[in-house]
Amino acid sequence: xxxxxxxxxxxxxxxxxxxxxxxxxxxxxxxxxxxxxxxxxxxxxxxxxxxxxxxxxxxxxxxxxxxxxxxxxxxxxxxxxxxxxxxxxxxxxxxxxxxxxxxxxxxxxxxxxxxxxxxxxxxxxxxxxxxxxxxxxxxxxxxxxxxxxxxxxxxxxxxxxxxxxxxxxxxxxxxxxxxxxxxxxxxxxxxxxxxxxxxxxxxxxxxxxxxxxxxxxxxxxxxxxxxxxxxxxxxxxxxxxxxxxxxxxxxxxxxxxxxxxxxxxxxxxxxxxxxxxxxxxxxxxxxxxxxxxxxxxxxxxxxxxxxxxxxxxxxxxxxxxxxxxxxxxxxxxxxxxxxxxxxxxxxxxxxxxxxxxxxxxxxxxxxxxxxxxxxxxxxxxxxxxxxxxxxxxxxxxxxxxxxxxxxxxxxxxxxxxxxxxxxxxxxxxxxxxxxxxxxxxxxxxxxxxxxxxxxxxxxxxxxxxxxxxxxxxxxxxxxxxxxxxxxxxxxxxxxxxxxxxxxxxxxxxxxxxxxxxxxxxxxxxxxxxxxxxxxxxxxxxxxx
Length: 544
What we know:
Blueprint: H1 16-25, H2 44-56, H3 80-88, H4 108-119, H5 133-144, H6 160-171, E1 177-179, E2 184-186, H7 197-202, E3 204-215, E4 218-223, E5 238-242, E6 255-261, E7 268-273, E8 278-283, E9 288-290, E10 293-296, E11 299-302, E12 308-313, E13 319-322, H8 330-333, E14 338-343, E15 352-356, E16 359-366, E17 370-373, E18 376-379, E19 384-385, E20 394-400, E21 405-410, E22 412-423, E23 428-432, E24 435-439, E25 451-457, E26 460-466, E27 477-483, E28 492-497, E29 502-506, E30 519-525, E31 528-533
Parallel strand pairs: 12-15, 19-21
Antiparallel strand pairs: 1-2, 3-4, 3-6, 4-5, 6-7, 8-14, 9-10, 10-11, 12-13, 14-15, 16-17, 16-20, 17-18, 20-21, 22-23, 22-25, 23-24, 25-26, 27-28, 27-30, 28-29, 30-31
């Protein structure tokens, strides 16, 4: 959730937050072809360069290129300035023969040792040198959190993405110093303060709070006093951040950590959810009131405020909604609205609901510059409109809080067999491809067994029509050309389809009375065919 670069191979990156954060900070960069190569290993020289950038908040190493060094094989290397600086700080050391091997792969343990020294650990006092250096490095690095989410063998070459993860962890770690009083390392520095590596060397600042507002290029949080010692801004009020280059609307209503630089709220580097949050995503058509709880997905959840939930609808100011608002009424059962329930204080009780409303309708016109959706015109230059939409499609519209416009996307299209139907109180349900969908009213054009084309979104059917899938004449409409005579049994009928083919079928018990020369809708099998009267102006595979 950081405002980082978009790499061509970003789908292969697992340490996404770390990679994006360090890209935004200028600590790492991709290849000229736009890729990141997350699983390529880091060299010792590359690790020295990244640590230099963190420590000095710059990429310029020219001031150190001519420094003296005991290392014998780096003076002609591109990274000599970075290496010499790290050597002067005790962050790196050469081998016994005074070589550094800058192009050799750095292992995870070697990288962790360098970052521990950057954090303030004295290599000698911590035992990061000598016979047990590896064991001691892993002990201190694990305790400090440097190895969190580093899913790689530490005795092997360190992949680029996990080097980024290890550095990101280090930036969020408090600096330490040796305490002669306790004979151990202490994160209380001179002056009695705590300071992260990122704050000390890169000017990183942090605010923790609930994300309460998203608008174009800006956001606002309500500070959380629980984190007052870590927050850059003091108090319990709100803080606004501008020049936010990424859409964080998916985090609305959640506790977040906002990272910015040099104490400037207009220099936001990233926003991401913190571990205090437990998030449940569902739809209004899947929720119901269960006494003093909310039920969805087969489980019931307690709420913080007995009978009310603080609710944000389409980014508006939060308002309290009673649990009845989320009950399984007929109106909610055909609602496509998404609801995100959040427990922001880790007490296993829901305290916030974030609702995104979706409006469905048919697209009756598509031009070069605009469309007509649900009876109104919308310009391509003003709104985010799905380019795949064509005339007669069904679509859904929602608010884009970040760009201050409408998002209009085509509903999902299912072409499949209608395998079930239920009538409910105020709505109906259709089973398509093994999944049940709700619909406001019965569609008389279709019957169980039909091949149908359905527009669906968030568990709701917007439109349903019979469909052969090949644009041909309806295969479920036929003309009766004979019944119970001319060699036919009393419950048999001979029918002709629009393609000219004929067959003899056996009528089901619930078929209507047949008249020779009349067209009927048919369903079922040849041995149990149901005949139904056609309805004037109803569509059958698009034909009236």
